[in-house]
Specification:
The protein is mostly beta strands and 356 residues long. The protein has 7 helices and 24 strands. The protein binds ligand MTE and molybdenum atom. Ligand MTE binds next to strand 3 and strand 8. Residues 241-354 form the Moybdenum cofactor oxidoreductase dimerisation domain.
């Protein structure tokens, strides 16, 4: 067993803060990712909160501020369960660093995402109980962890717009894959915002605050944005996920025996959309053939795909791309997607193979 109850074969990008992703072949194995290989992204030390004296404070622009224990949350609100894929904004950054370096950021492969069954209360029910004011246009989530990268030092805080917060798929989750949340995934309670960058799914949640403006915390106002440019002083806050698609097996650089090659991967559409088609190409993107694609297990869940290819002996290059239910596709090359923080790479994925 590795750190934080993870398997030994996790790709560990950093021990403190702990950042790790599952190897592609392991991630490919199941539609719901076992917790011991679910990726983990942390910006600071993992807080150890005692569920017995932990409380959730709901405050700000509400008619009735609340202080809820875990028992209150579990007994006074309907519990719901959903299969949701969380994806870090830095997923697949490694492909961008090949174009140009992205200094200081974790080089996530395609395993900066994982899927779990989350169980919890609907955030909308809790906000209704508190009586969220009409002028509250944003809902902020705060946790006690303080990241060494946050300037000035401050607890982790981000927000989502009111409409997103009130949608029925946003959960305050206390369980994952049938067990209480482990410490590294946010015990005793975390937010789950399907279809949005993982950064908004706040772990170790202690405060839900209804406000007029978005959070001005470091992770909302500075990090997790396409950085400001000369003529865009604000930058672009990352929220909803773009359509993405990746190959999980075989791995890049694999040497394979002759014969049919089974190629598998995942595609993930953003909020309100599903993946409609996945295609692969072995000739650099001139001809494409369709892969078999799973139906999504629910809103915000990935869809796995597979196809069999007959590759001639020698070097081969396999491209994969997806189309979503709105007709949107993906950009051809990581060079088109490169940005200084290396976020939101959703270019066609390429694996190089050698057939003997
Ligand atoms: N919540 C807190 N309090 N602190 C964090 O560092 N990291 C965020 C989010 N929630 C983070 C957090 C980011 S960037 C991601 S991608 C997800 O948690 C990762 O969730 P996981 O570790 O359960 O996979
Ligand atoms: Mo993230």
């Amino acid at each position: 067993m590795g750190m934080w109850g993870k398997r030994d074969d996790m790709v560990v990008h950093g021990r403190e803060p702990f950042n790790a992703e599952p190897p592609g072949a392991a991630l490919a194995r199941a539609a719901v990712t076992p917790t011991d290989m679910f990726y983990s992204r942390n910006h600071g030390p993992v807080p150890r909160l005692d569920p017995a004296d932990w409380r959730l404070v709901v405050d700000g622009l509400v008619a009735r501020p609340l202080t809820l224990s875990l028992d209150h949350l579990r007994s006074r609100f309907d519990a719901t369960e959903a299969t949701v894929t969380l994806q870090c904004a830095g997923n697949r950054r490694a492909d961008l660093t090949v174009v140009r370096p992205v200094p200081g950021e974790t080089p996530w492969g395609p395993g900066g995402l994982s899927t779990a069954r989350f169980r919890g209360a609907r955030l909308a029910d809790v906000l209704a109980h508190a009586g969220i004011a009409p002028e509250a246009a944003h809902v902020a989530f705060q946790a006690p962890d303080v990241s060494p990268s946050a300037a000035p030092p401050q607890p982790y805080e981000v927000s989502v717009p009111r409409d997103r917060a009130l949608a029925p798929d946003v959960l305050l989750a206390w369980a994952m894959n049938g067990a209480p949340l482990p410490a590294v995934h946010g015990a005793p309670l975390r937010v789950v915002v399907p279809g949005w960058i993982g950064a908004r799914s706040v772990k170790w949640l202690t405060h839900v605050t209804a406000r007029i403006t978005p959070s001005d915390g470091y992770f909302q106002a500075t990090a997790y944005r396409l950085p400001p440019t000369g003529d865009d002083p604000e930058g672009v806050a990352l929220g909803p996920l773009p359509l993405n698609c990746a190959v999980l097996t075989p791995s890049d650089g694999a040497v394979l025996p002759r014969g049919p090659v089974e190629v598998t991967g995942y595609a993930l559409a953003g909020e309100g959309r599903t993946v409609a088609r996945v295609e692969v190409s072995t000739d650099g993107g001139r001809a494409w053939s369709r892969a078999a694609l799973d139906a999504p297990a629910g809103p915000g869940a990935w869809q796995r795909w597979r196809t069999s290819l007959d590759l001639p002996p020698g070097d081969a290059s396999v491209l994969a791309r997806a189309w979503d239910s709105s007709g949107a596709g993906m950009p051809e090359s990581p060079a088109q997607m490169w940005n200084p923080k290396g976020y939101a790479n959703h270019a066609w994925l390429r694996v190089r193979l050698r057939v003997r």
